[in-house]
Amino acid sequence: MRIMRMIAASAALALSIAACTNASTPSPATTAEPPSTTAAPLATTLAPLPTTSLATTTTTAAPPEVVTVWADESTVNTLEAIAADFTANRGVAVEIRDVPFTSIRNEVLAAAAEDEVPDLFVGAHAWAGALVDAGAVAPIRGIPQTRRDAFIAPALEAFRLDGALYGIPYAAESIAL
């Protein structure tokens, strides 16, 4: 039950963030900025967030008409319930595509070559390096500290590369001997 709440909370946060994102809006020039891309993953890979820092002045971009999410069968049902509520409350349609977990990484990499990546997708944190190198994901910015504090710090850090955050965990696994 706790995992389902974590999935729901993470998905809702990701969808909210995606609704505020306008991928066509150029980000302000900064030093050591990771390459700009059109999408980012969910949970193990997540969604592109607003492209400006909280410390800078931001302009409000119109929300997208549709947020596209790729997820595996075990996550789709939970996301569909969240998406229906999100659409009702925000007026932004959510299109969820069921993609086998073992195929998501390769499909996202192939889609990146065609500039057709989904807005959000579920994937493993271990994929982040290859996805960043391929330009398939964008760094997530603008998450208030109070929201970041809701996550287990090491799980959130697993999505950080060169100081930039590329995903938000929806579950964490503890292995013990």
Describe this protein with a few key phrases.
globular; single chain; 36% helix; D-Maltodextrin-Binding Protein, domain 2; alpha/beta; 177 residues; 6 helices; disordered N terminus; three-stranded parallel beta sheet; two-stranded antiparallel sheet
Set out the fold topology:
Layout: H1 2-19, E1 66-71, H2 73-90, E2 93-98, H3 101-113, E3 120-121, H4 128-133, H5 145-148, H6 153-157, E4 160-161, E5 164-165
Parallel strand pairs: 1-2, 1-3
Antiparallel strand pairs: 4-5
Helix pairs in contact: 1-2
Walk me through what this model shows.
With 177 residues, this protein is of the alpha/beta class. It has a single domain (2-22, 35-53, 63-165), classed as Periplasmic binding protein-like II (D-Maltodextrin-Binding Protein, domain 2, 3-Layer(aba) Sandwich), CATH 3.40.190. The protein is 36% helix and 10% strand. The protein has a three-stranded parallel beta sheet with strand order 2-1-3, with helices on one face. Strands 4-5 form a two-stranded antiparallel sheet. Strand 4 (160-161) and strand 5 (164-165) form a beta hairpin. Helix 1 (2-19) crosses helix 2. It is globular, with a radius of gyration of 15 Å. The model is unreliable at 1-9 and 16-57 (pLDDT under 50).
